[in-house]
Specification:
Blueprint (H helix, E strand, L loop, with lengths): L30 H12 L1 H7 L2 H11 L4 E3 L4 E5 L23 E6 L10 E4 L3 H14 L5 H4 L17 H11 L6 E3 L8 E3 L5 E3 L10 E10 L19
Length: 243
């Protein structure tokens, strides 16, 4: 997976490897990659990172909460150059069995250029996400609860995403709501953290990093202590957990 002639810490993808064999969360990598992902998510070093006191203190200052609660199902995502990227979605429809007031932190682990597979956000899309969720829930109101809260139910896309075509989706949504704006992306650096609400529509760009860097990032979700949590998310991520 890594370039054989360069330092590991640079995270440069092996140009002779097939990127589709090394897909991350949401993809279909080789079985051995899934086992490595399972191990990485349970690794004590990663679990310690999730409890970083500076991040936790900032969450409390930013939200005004006296105490925060992180969902155990944090995700460590890699995105190889030339591989598939995370499709268009908003977070709430993956967490429908908990309160819809939570904060997602997206943490790039290392620098991530605008074309390096980082997150992009659809401008002014919070109200759009809320409208889309009302529509999805109205269609699914006759379904049993287990299906109604499922991001892969009969009214959702097979892979849980609304689209993989950002240009087409943006045009369609601007016809639906005139306040929807552009797709926005950043030039992320190590140490950055990006926060978004449950309704903001976003996706990952395709990794076309000029240096061939593998994008590595983690997404974490925080509730205020005492909030109703989606219990499906109160366990460490595994590749076969169905979420």
């Amino acid at each position: 997976m890594l370039h054989p002639d360069l330092p590991t810490r640079l995270g440069i993808f092996n140009p002779s490897a097939d990127p589709t064999a090394y897909q991350g969360i949401g993809g279909l990598p080789e079985p051995s990659i899934n086992e490595l992902l399972n191990t990485a998510h349970a690794d004590p070093a990663y679990r310690s990172f999730l409890a970083h006191p500076s991040l936790r203190a900032f969450i409390r200052r930013f939200t005004g909460w006296s105490q925060e609660r992180i969902l155990d199902r944090a995700m460590l995502r890699h995105n190889c150059p030339g591989s598939h990227s995370t499709g268009i979605h908003y977070d709430q429809y993956f967490l429908r069995d908990g309160e819809d007031e939570f904060l997602t932190a997206w943490v790039p682990i290392g620098d991530c250029s605008p074309g390096g597979g980082g997150l992009m956000y659809l401008e002014n899309s919070t109200s759009l996400g809320q409208e889309l969720e009302r529509e999805f829930l109205a269609k699914a109101e006759h379904l049993p609860k287990e299906e109604r809260i499922n991001a892969f139910n009969m009214f959702m896309a097979n892979d849980g995403f609304m689209s993989h075509n950002a240009v087409e989706f943006g045009l369609q949504m601007r016809e639906k709501r005139r306040d929807v704006g552009r797709w926005l992306v950043g030039d992320y650096e190590a140490g950055d953290v990006v926060f978004h609400n449950p309704w903001m529509v976003h996706a990952a760009t395709k990794n076309e990093d000029a240096e061939g860097r593998i994008r590595l990032a983690s997404d974490l979700r925080f509730h205020e202590e005492g909030a109703k949590l989606d219990k499906r998310w109160m366990k460490v991520w595994t590749h076969d957990d169905g979420l």
